[in-house]
Amino acid sequence: MAKKWPKISIITPSFNQVDFIERTIKSVIEQDYPNLEYIVKDAGSEDGSVAIIKDYGQRYPKIIKWVSARDKGQTDGINQGLRMAKGEILAYLNSDDTLAPGTLKKVAAIFRDNSKIMWLTGKCRIIDRDDQEIRSWVTVYKNSWLRWYRYQTLLILNYISQPATFWRREALEKVGYFDLHKHYAFDYDYWLRLGRKYPLGIIWQPLANFRVHRTSKGKTGFLKQFQEDLAVVKRYTSNPVLLGLHRLSNFAIIFSYGMMTFLGRISVALRGE
Q: Which secondary-structure segment (H or E) carries 157?
């Protein structure tokens, strides 16, 4: 007898993402996964995105649950969705990111056939507002660290791609919900909590796409993100070597992004734009 597909719950927190929310929803619905629950937690958007969410909710009432109401921010929205979720496997997908085709069946098969795996991740592309892959060197860099995954190296650098990461309900019950006090590094904090308790499963295929655009949080607040990353790491280690390597890694990334921005501006100037 064929094994049953486990129920997967995906949570999407959203606020004023009219340009991207439909692509996010379609990437989940078009997975054609037979046991899916999709929860969209909108924070009271006023840009037209609620109409899109409502339309898909009406078209897929057996799959999509949605709420539009003010909350305490992205982390609160995710936690609210997790508390609503009924799935055996959990994940969240931000409202400007997308899943790669076929991801949910790949993830479900690993969890279904490997009862000891409590959380897993995969590769993740970086895309622009037009869905074109960018910053492939960053993807290669993160994947090279992922190939040598150890908890100690995760304390040096967050190379776990959030849109491509899934965990069991059992793990949620053990490690709890996301920290409401974290604005940028709440996912990193969660990976460290999971990694401290469970080995990481890895799927060596692209599972999702992380979008970078003009107003994305990762682009507008990456300096604050690194500051919060360091504060998170200090919760899990006092080892001066690991903390020093974490600071060095952050400095290298900041320098690289600074150079990339500088060279981009020069290129624009030379083209006379």
A: none
Give the range of the structural domain holding residue 56, as residue numbers without chain letter. 8-271
What CATH number is associated with residue 117?
Answer: 3.90.550.10
Tell me whether residue 2 is in a domain: no
Those residues with Cβ within 8 angstroms of residue 37's Cβ, 6 or more apart along the chain or in another chain: 7, 8, 9, 10, 63, 65, 85, 86, 87
**Burial class for 212, CB neighbours closer than 10 Å (0-12, 13-18, 19+):** middle
Whether 103 maps to a domain, the answer reads yes
What is the pLDDT, as a whole number, of residue 225?
A: 84
pLDDT tens for 74-101 read: 999 999 999 999 999 999 999 999 999 9
With a cut of 70, list the residues of the chain below it in pLDDT: 1-2, 216-222, 256-273
pLDDT at position 270: 62
Answering whether pTM is above 0.70, one says yes
Q: Which residues pair with 13 in a beta bridge?
A: 41
> What are the distances in angstroms from CA 176 to CA 11, 158, 194, 233?
16, 20, 10, 18
DSSP string, 206-243: EEEEEE--TT-HHHHSHHHHHHHHHHHHHHH---HHHH
In a domain, 123, yes or no: yes
CB-based contact 122:202 (threshold 8 Å)? yes
Over residues 193-209, the pLDDT tens digits come to: 999 999 999 999 999 99
Contact 39, 9 (CB under 8 A): yes
3-state SS, residue 260: helix
Q: How many domains does the chain have?
A: 1
